[in-house]
Amino acid sequence: MAQERGFHVAVVGATGAVGQQMLKTLENRDFPISKLTLLSSARSAGKTAVYKGQDITIEEAKPESFEGVDIALFSAGGSVSKALAPEAAKRGAIVVDNTSAYRMDENVPLVVPEVNPEDLKNHNGIIANPNCSTIQMVVALEPLRKKYGLKKVIVSTYQAVSGAGAAAVEEMYAQTQAILDGTEPEANILPVGSAEKHYQIAFNAIPQIDKFEENGFTFEEMKMINETKKIMHKQELEVAATCVRLPVGTGHSESVYFEIDAEGVDANEIKTLLADAPGVVLQDNPSEQIYPMPAFCVGSNDVFVGRIRKDLDNEKGFHMWVVSDNLLKGAAWNSVQIAEKLVELGLVKE
Ligand code: NAP
Ligand code: 3JM
């Protein structure tokens, strides 16, 4: 596994749904790694994970685990990041954090490489990876903001179960089997593990992702709203979100309504712009039933856009359908892409 030259990389949450994709992505990208440290809770310590055909023993994450680490990729939940990301940064590592722990901290850049890579230069040891639903939306919206200006965004999401972790996916399979067997499905995880009530996700749609805030929006919805404004450096942007969990394994979909700051633009112009946009694949041909679907986007790093049409009442309004692999561009790939950008910009010591 180890190359002579490269970086000491640590993956925190290596056994998780995101962590496993981190390993695959580092391997697929042939990221320059001289040493790979895999960390989890005490529960998984001693197990092994495979990287480039080699078994690596997983260790329990502790402050000392980060001695000598250059880049630490965190995806083990907010409380783990709160406790250990500063410990890693203190020891000289650059942290790319996949949780919501630091995203809105003004000293922490919140980065999508297609949108605001230059923000990486202002890091203080921790860089935040946005929420999966935010990332795929801003990749599709940024080219439009740049060319026409953006006034308003209203998004409804159709989110996959893998966004809630490996155990949630297992529960969906078990519920599906129970229902097919004619028995009662058991629900213990969704919509929120720590909440009072749990609902089946199999053959269902749950309009709650994360806890509720006082204002009636959920935390997931507020993440999309606040993170979009921060990444685009546009506090005045009007954003509203409704986030819904569906019984899809992997691949988040979004119906996005947006209003640009220009008149006389038609849908074909928007399609041409997005066809050439970085990280975007246009799949938009209604006459041949061509549009993005999660089942066919799994495993790709791209953001797929289709169903682009002009609003019938608002001259500046448009609708589009945006799909991406929530574990890749939504998490693992965006993090590794940030790490690649840090290397390219000379921001990591070797
Ligand atoms: P998961 O499948 O449940 O995996 C959780 C991982 O965290 C496991 O590796 C687990 O290790 C580890 N872990 C749990 N408690 C720990 C502790 N006290 N110390 C060290 N490691 C610990 O969850 P997931 O879907 O991979 O998501 C993990 C986190 O990533 C989420 O909680 C979220 O904050 C973030 N996330 C971000 C996005 C995004 O949009 N950017 C998307 C999904 C998730 P064990 O095997 O030892 O339990
Ligand atoms: C996606 O336990 C936790 O703190 C994790 C909750 C979580 C988050 C989060 O808030 O970090 C689960 C799934 C996310 C996220 O990306 O925002």
In brief:
The chain has 350 residues and is an alpha/beta fold. Helices cover 27% and strands 23% of the residues.
Describe this structure as you would to a colleague.
The chain is an alpha/beta fold. It has seven helices and 13 strands. It has two domains: 7-130 and 331-344, NAD(P)-binding Rossmann-like Domain (Rossmann fold); 134-325, Dihydrodipicolinate Reductase, domain 2, CATH 3.30.360. Helix content is 27%, strand content 23%. Helix 2 links the parallel strand 5 (71-74) and strand 6 (94-97). The longest helix has 17 residues, at 132-148. It is globular. The two termini are 17 Å apart. The model has no long low-confidence stretch (mean pLDDT 97). The structure holds NADP nicotinamide-adenine-dinucleotide phosphate and 3-(2-carboxyethyl)benzene-1,2-dicarboxylic acid. The site of 3-(2-carboxyethyl)benzene-1,2-dicarboxylic acid has 8 residues, from helix 2.
List the helices and strands and how they pair.
Layout: E1 7-12, H1 17-28, E2 33-40, E3 48-51, E4 54-60, E5 71-74, H2 78-90, E6 94-97, E7 126-128, H3 132-148, E8 150-159, H4 166-180, H5 219-231, E9 238-245, E10 252-260, H6 267-275, E11 280-282, E12 303-310, E13 317-324, H7 328-344
Parallel strand pairs: 1-2, 1-5, 2-4, 5-6, 6-7, 8-9, 11-12
Antiparallel strand pairs: 3-4, 8-10, 10-13, 12-13
Helix pairs in contact: 1-7, 3-5, 3-7
